[in-house]
Amino acid sequence: MKNLFFTLMMAFLAIPVNSQELPQPFQDVNQDDLGNVSDEFQDYFFEALKQKGIENYEKAIIALEKCLELDTEKSVVYFELGKNYRELEEFDKAISSFQKANDLEPEKESVLVYLFQTYGMMEDFDGAIATLKKLIPIDVSYKEDLANLYLLNENYDQALSLLDKLDAELGANSYRNSLRRQIFARTNNTTAQIENLQEGISDNPDVEQNYLNLIYIYGENGEDEEAFKVAQELLETNPGSTLAHLALYKFYLNKGNTDAAVASMKIVFESEEIDAESKFKVLNDFLNFVQENPEYEDELIEVAGKLSEWEDAPKLYEQLGSYYLKKNNREDALKFFELGLKENPENFQLTKNTLLLQLEFGKFDAAKNLSAKALEGFPSQPLLYLFQAVALNKLMDYEAAAESLQDGLDYLIDDKLMEIDFYSQLAISYNGMKNADKAEEYRRKAENLKKEIN
Question: Which of 35, 100, 151, 446 has the fewest Cβ atoms surrounding its Cβ within 10 A?
Answer without folding.
Answer: 35
